[in-house]
Amino acid sequence: MVTISDRSTVVVMKDQVSADLSGEAAILNLKTSVYFGLNTVGASIWKLIQEPRKVSEIRDAILKEYDVEPDRCETDLLALLQELLEKELIEVKNEAGQ
Prior knowledge:
globular; 98 residues; alpha+beta; 38% helix; 6 strands; single chain; three-stranded antiparallel sheet
C-alpha cells in the first residue's frame, strides 16, 4: 500500500476526465467508468494537482486560500488524497527512503 506524506508528490492519472461544475468538480475514471465528485475545496486541490505537486505545496496553497487550522487541513488533505488514490484517480510518488 502506498503511504502519502507531506513529502509525497501527487498528480492526476491520465485515464480520467473532469469537469468544473460551478466551483465543484466531477471526475470520471475512464478505466472503471466510476464518477467521483468534489466540493469546492476538493476542486481547488484537483486543479492544483493537474501538474505534479508535493503534498506540502498543496497544503500551503489551501491554507492561504481558506480559513482552516493547519492540522485539520493536513488531515483532511491526506484523507482526500488517499481516497483519490483508492479510486485510481491520482498517482503518488514518494522520495527514495520513504
